[in-house]
Structures
1.
Amino acid sequence: MRAYVAIFEARFRALLQYRAAALAGLATQVFWGLVRVMIFTAFYASSTGAQPMTLPEVITYVWLTQALLMMLPWRPDPDVEQLIRSGNVAYELVRPVDLHGLWLARAVAQRTAPVLLRCLPMVVLAYSVFGMAGPAGPLPALAFAVSLCATVALSAALTALLSVSTFFTLTGRGLHSLVIGVLNLMSGAIIPLPLLPEWIQPLVRVLPFRGLLDTPFRLYMGHLPPEAALQAVGHQLLWTVLLVLAGRWLLARALRRVVVQGG
Amino acid sequence: MAQIVVEDLRKRFVVAERRAGMLGALAGVVRRRHRVVEALAGVGFRVDEGELVGYIGPNGAGKSTTVKVLAGILVPDGGRCEVQGRVPWLERVEHVARIGVVFGQRTQLWWDLPVVESFELLREIYRVDRQQYRVRLDALVNALDVGAVLDVPVRQLSLGQRMRCDVVAALLHAPQLLFLDEPTIGLDAPAKLAVREFVRRLNRERGTTVILTTHDMDDIEALCSRVVVIDHGRISCDGSLDHLRERAGVGRRIIVDLERDEPLAPTDARVVSREGTRVVLAFDPVRTPAAALVARITREHAVRDLFVENPPIEEIVARLYGEADARGEAEPRPEPREDPS
Amino acid sequence: MLESLRVYGCYVAVALRGQLQYRGSVVMGALGNLMVTGVELFGLWALFDRFGQIQGWTLAEVALLYGMANVSLALAEIVGRGFRVFDQLVKSGDFDRLLLRPRGTAFQVAAQHFELARVGRLIQGLAVLVYALVAQGLLRPGAELVLVVGSIVGGACTFMGVFVLQATVAFFTIESLELFAIITYGGVETAQYPLSIYGDGLRRFFTWVVPLAFANFVPGVVVLGRPERFGPEWLAWASPLVGVGFFWVCLRVWRVGERYYRSTGS
Ligand SMILES: Nc1ncnc2c1ncn2[C@@H]1O[C@H](COP(=O)(O)OP(=O)(O)OP(=O)(O)O)[C@@H](O)[C@H]1O
Ligand SMILES: [Mg+2]
């Protein structure tokens, strides 16, 4: 918990400190959103067939994605990565803390710190200027909020797992870019999941990544009946638990190796 | 002929201040505070061809800033500056092709490369003829004794080895003017001596003009006929070492070992310190000839041993630096400035 | 000129030797890069798979734009890496030593780095480009192919110019560099589709401010024989020059920014 508070504060301060950077980040997100909206609009304008999503839905989806961008697990925790690469992680073992728990707390802090300065302004802007729709009602709004918390947990579990994987990929960031490539596609950050080809959908449904963007979006739009909504959040939480367990197991193995090799 | 002409050179840095605490960070979003540091506040001097000038001053006085302006790295805010007839920052490429610079704090060499490959690359960059390069490299390697480390990557060199290689690198294109910014920092005694001896010979035999910045007063005493003292961005003294001594008013000293513990206080000398039977006196050799003073002391007291010496240069310098502080220029005055950008 | 090229070669040899010490890292980096850009390509394909065409442009036609834009950016990334990490050089004060050498500073910054890992995008872009050229029957000697290659070089110059501008800003502040990602990565994202699908503001920006339009859309329209002509035909044939001109302007701006370099305090 202390780690959480400390890192949250540090991140938050960094965001405040570099206010120009925060503004630039916001501008970048807006630009990206606008371009993608124009691309989708053009696609919809040139086809008459029925699609799994309407254009206004896609537009809302694009803006929600832009708002949640900072919550996605784009890369391992840079500090932890540095710790592992330099070998200093051996010293961490002397401390009476649960290492994976600590890293998880750090990841949660990292993902929640930008909410106030990056996500909220984006949502306000998109809602008031760029035609993003509001939540479908009070109940969907509540479901969205719950699912968003699960998204943060899932995102943190993935971040921690990515950090741990640094032990096994000391030579470079290749594996990370690989994971991020998959994550990009399967989370729906590139195009909304329903617009992907049919044959890939079964895979998309099983993998954890849809819990990052697609699930909160569906709840936001009120697309899911109550029991399906519960199921969707259950999917997020189940994967969070599995990924945490996987992270702990991998970390234990990696540390055993570190100890045997004498650091 | 004047190699360097500097007049009324000015340079200020605007430094952003950070406020402490979470509230400070929040306040910083709205308003930022800035502080102006006057690194050079009207510096002026001339250096003629073949001189070896020591450029000294306390930490933060503006030495490195001056060197950076003269080397074409920084553009000053005002004043005139000509080096070998060129304005450094206006004709940078022509200018730097004819000077050598060594910053003791950081290397000019490529970290991952063996030393000799750095030299090769520099040969290409400075357009040095292959024949000339060979001759010069041999001479420099011999003089600085770095033959054994030529094939070692720079990151594996010891500080002393690296510094000597840096000096070689700065001279491969045979510049007539050399800037050395703390070239002996962190070196052990033999390495210091080697660098010093090399610089002396470079100046004597090849007539290279050298500007030497250092905190090691032995460097100054061993090498420099002329010393320029800078303090808080202003030249506070410029002249020979003797001139410096005079300015500091430290005088010469007599150290007397008495036979017994008795009072010793001649009227024309000042007691600097007294420890048991050892008394240190300071006097002004112009007003009081040393011989007369010695004669008087030995006549009036039972003396076991006695010798006359010049005060260590450290003391002179401390005196000079302290003087500036006493004039009330202790800190470059911060000028807090609110700017709501 | 030739002599500068040789010195550039020396620098690159040094940089490559450094990177090849960590061969595994380079290979993995390139694979990862290929993967990330490959996934983007898959997204583009999926959209065409679903919608069939975008304002009358088929996948094969858009592939030409996509290939040209990505090859341009990849070339600029490989050669211009030094400018993208330039803020570190300013922060650490290591730019000092570049100023101490009798060569252009922009030249040295570019020469210091050479990013092999970005060949991932290059390979992917080239593959798409070749597919598009084959599909259009353009992969034969002729004026069209010359225009395509020339425009790619011009586009690389445009991207380089943006990298140079980004680095120039670092002389004043290191805070808002992220904004330039809009122009480079936003630019390549935009340029992957025909410029005619976008709103006026965006179109004007990428034509008159940062002339990315001339990297693929303007010449592409002529090569593909499509109706969305921009200006007289000779202008399309002059597209490579636009990028070169933009790069030249950016270098002038760099020269001005350089005078505001303040080194570090120690
Ligand atoms: N790039 C910079 N940004 C901000 N302040 C600077 C910069 N460079 C120098 N200063 C300030 O200008 C003053 C003079 O610095 P300079 O490096 O010239 O001192 P110096 O005489 O070389 O000191 P030292 O003996 O410690 O090396 C100092 O107060 C320093 O903090
Ligand atoms: Mg200094």
2.
Amino acid sequence: MIRLIDIQKSYDNGTKALKGVNLRIDDGEFVFLVGPSGSGKSTIIKLITAEIAPSGGRLMVNGYNLNNIRPRQVPYMRRTLGVIFQDFRLIEKKTVKENLTFAMRAVGASPREIRKRVPYVLDLVGLDQKGDRMPSQLSGGEQQRVAIARALVNNPKMIIADEPTGNLDPMRSLEIMMLLERINELGTTLLVVTHEKELVNRFSKRVVAIENGRIISDETGGYYNNETTI
Amino acid sequence: MRQRYDFGYFLSEGFHSIFTHGFMSFAAVCMIVCCLLIMGSFTLVAVNAESMFSDLEAENQFTAYIDETIPQDEARALQDDIEAVPNVSRAEFVTKEQAQEDFEARYEGNELFEGLPADTYRDRFHIYLDDISLLAETEAAVKEVAGVADTQSAPEIAEGFTVIRNIAGAVAVILVVILLAVSLFIIANTIKLATFNRREEIAIMKMCGATNAFVRWPFVFEGLILGLVGAVVAFFLQWGIYVLVGNAISGEDTISLITVLPFQPMALRVLGVFVLTGFVIGAGGSLAAIRKFLQV
Ligand SMILES: Nc1ncnc2c1ncn2[C@@H]1O[C@H](COP(=O)(O)OP(=O)(O)OP(=O)(O)O)[C@@H](O)[C@H]1O
Ligand SMILES: [Mg+2]
């Protein structure tokens, strides 16, 4: 569960990226976070992953209070999250399987757990035949599937995706979104940041719209109809 | 919940990444080898100089041999005459039997000097000086004393050895410290270059929930392995260089003013110091290099 209460964020250069954001995401939800460029979407993601700290307000993530979390607790908080980025962020020098193994190793999983979990997750994202390829030998959509598999591999409570389809064509984007929907149906909470109006409107999900550092609408089964967007 | 540490994994990751980042590893090893060679060569020169100085310093004295025809008790009585010579601080009588014993003890195991009759030796005085710079004059004056047959001193003795030696020692320590600091700096930067490509990798690990310790260990092992490889390479190069230079000096130096210490007896210590320094430079450099990247 995520809770932002009157969250403010000013960057060191004085930019006020968030001006009092209230947002609550419960376990099992699928939420789209939409808004124009520079509205503060990535800032919210970075606050949730504890990459940056809020300037004001209260922030809870999966039972961790990020206002006064100790640095040594941050890794354990992050293990409750799976993060996906627009640019995939795979390790180019490792195969698909090694990328997943690496993520499981990072949280101290045993070789036995790894042997069991990796094929399952690869199968889930439809890459069971391509585990031994290098990322460079995959299409963009496939690379994003690897990133999704990596986000899933440690069985997080929640997956956070910052423009996961930003680098993909509409067909691949739809496939990725459907995969994320399926993952949500299997019980993982999802928060997906996107620009893509068409895509959002194909799914009947909760849509949170942000503009200029403030939430301007939040409707379940909502429709992305912000005129100022893009 | 405690983090499980799997050192086999860290070791294999560290080892693996040495090969994946082959060129940078090679550069780091080269740097470690260079630093160790410079430091090692300098230290070895210092050790040699030190040993030469202490040999020379021990000769702040000369020996006066007494005419063989003079009986031993008369010879002993010459002490007052000799000590009356200006600049002589002390004269120490040594009988020929004692001289033989000392000599044989010093060259123990050398058959050439064994079992020579005591007559081969003469009674003698070891004469200690107040001022070593007046050695020549004092030696001449002692030779004038009736009953003294001959004198012998080391001609290389110059004044101020102690001072020179102390200065040289201090300079050596300062230079080694500076060199160590410089090599650490260079290694840290070399490894920083090597790890620069891995910022992304580190950021990914941290995003997956890896602890700092988990991220660090493979780098520590990598640094230790690089340090070890560098140390071993440097050791053999150092050995070769030392022997070559030593031979060249001995070949040039016909009057054998300079004696080069043999390498073998020092080898183990050199290797030990190299490996330790290599470990410190390697692991210290790695840790310094990745510190910045860990703040994700
Ligand atoms: N590290 C930073 N330092 C200073 N200002 C920043 C920093 N990161 C973001 N900003 C500013 O904060 C505001 C919000 O940025 P943010 O990245 O959250 O936008 P976004 O909604 O993700 O945009 P986009 O859709 O283009 O990714 C922008 O004005 C941006 O310029
Ligand atoms: Mg963004």
